[in-house]
Amino acid sequence: MSNLYRNAKVDLTTTNATTLYTCPTAKRGIVKSILVSEDSGNADTITVTITDADSAVFSLFKVRAVSANATVELLTAPLVVEESEILKVTAATANRLHVVASLLEVS
């Protein structure tokens, strides 16, 4: 079994759903933290979804508020992402939010 600590990060420059992390084949991702930072001086909201291997989309956080110039930790417990599942993030407004996830990949 091999374990790999990593992070995934994205600057949300559009209001499109943007891939934050895709779990590789034959692995599991254990997401410890998802930090969202607002850097424009304007409050905003973020939506976080997970897409499973069958392309079904599940909402994890729907229109979660992020105050101006603030950082929010979204997770209160680890999140398991299975093989081929995709974490996506969507900002209500472009060019305001940065997202960083810290995780452990296990095979």
* CATH-defined fold name: Jelly Rolls
Rough outline: globular
- CATH class categorisation: Mainly Beta
Helix content: under 10%
Instruction: Compute the CA-based radius of gyration.
Output: 14 Å
Average of per-residue pLDDT values: 97
Number of strands: 9
Kindly describe this structure.
The protein has 107 residues and is mainly β. It has a single domain (3-106), classed as Nucleoplasmin core domain (Jelly Rolls, Sandwich). 0% of the residues lie in helices and 62% in strands. It has no helices and 9 strands. The protein has strands at residues 3-12, 18-22, 28-38, 44-51, 57-66, 71-73, 79-81, 86-91, 97-106. Strands 1, 3, 6, 7 and 9 form a 5-stranded antiparallel β-sheet that branches. A 4-stranded antiparallel β-sheet has the order 2-8-4-5, with no helix packed on it. The chain starts with a strand and ends with a strand.
Features:
single chain, four-stranded antiparallel sheet, 62% strand, 107 residues, 0% helix, Jelly Rolls, globular, mainly beta, five-stranded antiparallel sheet
